[in-house]
Design a protein that fits this description.
Mycobact_Acyl-CoA_DH; oxidoreductase activity, acting on the CH-CH group of donors; oxidoreductase; Butyryl-CoA Dehydrogenase, subunit A, domain 3; binds flavin-adenine dinucleotide; AcylCoA_DH/ox_N; globular; alpha+beta; 4-stranded mixed β-sheet; Butyryl-Coa Dehydrogenase, subunit A, domain 1; 3 domains; 8 strands; Butyryl-CoA Dehydrogenase, subunit A, domain 2; FAD; 12 helices; 4-stranded antiparallel β-sheet; about 45% helix
Length: about 375
């Protein structure tokens, strides 16, 4: 590790040790629950004030142009300190960079500073009941009017939808397939937007159904050109894969928890030691893959980032499963907030969101290995 990287890590660790902590703040992961949002917003403002918000953004927009080692160091130190890396993933990691590429100067000026400071939380309005893996078949429609657009349709699995100020919406403005799609900014308090929370199996309620009925949007709500929605959506998903892949860097903390939990229960036997060693190696390989993917200079939509998302989510899932072995019977009656039980439940979700493991494997097969296209998917 370079001495500069070490000094950044030390700087962050020292700052985290004395930084003000909003009441109730804890490491809630990529998305806060409604109860976590006030502390998460206050924390994002503190990060922005101290220069630790949106590290990967360019300096022009208040970031630090941070490379992989500094981002990794920050994520690890935040995990060690038991605080989230940021308010939520959608604004800083997905929408911000996408607006920098596809947004107009007016959109950038209106939205980017407020994402960085936590004034605005964003959600991602992509998935629909009949369009998850096959995102190009979304049915929510935006129709052009004299004043702008009117949107009708339904979205589902919208993380943070009930607390967000804005949503990034994928909607159909033209014919079927990829070319008929466009992306819009939707104020979540616009008339006609109804958000209904969904209760998850971990007893949390982070995602929602969103119903859009006659929602009027101004002409300048369009992000990118009309019909350019697939490119914007792909860039967003690429960013999501990159960001989910980057979660790997904080997994060392879970491995430490796992070893401790097994040791205090007298369960850290040879079998568990082998599993932990294997997971530890996988986390290091992930970090190296993350660095290589970024250094390659490829666009986040590139298939290389599917490898990162696949490896990261499946490693998280496997850490969760090994954590259950470490807890033994205690896993059955522990509270949902037992970190290792929570990690197991969340680990499975990670293999679904942002494109399932099967879809990542299809992308790798078709776009990296050059195998024939999936016969069940419509031609591009
Ligand atoms: C925790 C969590 C948070 C989420 N947050 C958001 C959010 O904020 N915004 C948002 O828009 N969406 C969100 N999602 C939705 C997520 O993007 C979708 O769940 C995902 O894309 C899969 O779509 P689906 O659930 O409709 O499953 P389906 O597409 O119906 O897939 C069902 C199963 O079939 C498999 N399958 C489907 N097609 C193929 C194929 N061609 N080849 C092989 N296997 C296939 C899948 O891998 C899966 O196992 C979230 C999901 C989760 C779990």
């Amino acid at each position: 590790m370079s001495s500069r990287a070490v000094s950044f890590r030390e700087e962050v660790r020292a700052w985290l040790a004395t930084a003000p902590r909003p009441a109730g703040l804890h490491d809630y992961g990529p998305t806060p629950t409604a109860a976590d949002v006030p502390a998460g917003r206050a924390w994002q403002a503190i990060l922005a004030e101290a220069g630790y918000a949106c590290l990967h953004w360019p300096e022009r927009w208040g970031g630090r142009d941070a490379g992989v080692p500094d981002q990794a160091a920050f994520a690890e130190e935040a995990a060690r300190a038991g605080v989230p890396r940021q308010l939520n993933i959608v604004g800083p990691d997905l929408v911000g960079p996408v607006l920098m590429t596809y947004g107009t100067p007016a959109q950038q000026a209106a939205y980017l500073p407020r994402i960085r400071t936590g004034h605005d939380m964003w959600c991602q309005l992509f998935s629909e009941p009949e369009a998850g893996s096959d995102l190009a078949s979304v049915r929510t429609r935006a129709v052009r009017t004299d004043a702008g657009w009117v949107v009708d349709g339904q979205k589902v699995w919208t993380s943070g939808g009930g607390d967000a100020e804005y949503g990034l919406l994928l909607a159909r403005t033209g014919g079927p397939g990829h070319r008929g799609l466009s992306v819009f900014v939707v104020p979540m308090d616009a008339p006609g937007v109804v958000v209904r929370p969904l209760l998850q199996m971990d007893n949390e309620s982070k995602f929602n159904e969103v119903f859009l009925t006659g929602v009027a949007l101004p002409a300048d709500a369009l992000v990118g050109a009309e019909g350019e929605g697939w490119a914007v959506a792909t860039a967003t998903l690429g960013r999501e894969r990159l960001s989910l892949g980057a979660n790997a860097v904080s997994m060392f903390r879970s491995l430490d928890d796992l070893v401790e939990s097994a040791t205090v229960r007298g369960r850290f036997d040879e079998h568990l030691r082998d599993e932990v060693t294997d997971l530890w190696i996988r986390v290091w390989l992930l970090r190296a893959t993350w660095e290589r993917a970024i250094a390659s200079g490829e666009e986040p939509g590139a298939p290389a980032f599917s490898v990162l998302k696949l490896l990261s989510s499946e490693t998280q899932r496997d850490i969760g499963n090994t954590g259950i072995e470490a807890l033994g019977l205690d896993a059955l009656w522990s509270e949902n907030n037992e970190p290792l039980v929570h990690r197991m439940l969340v680990g499975h979700a990670q293999t679904i969101l942002g494109g399932t493991s099967e879809i990542q494997r299809n992308i790798l097969a078709e776009r990296i290995l050059g195998l024939p296209r999936d016969p069940y998917r419509a031609p591009a």
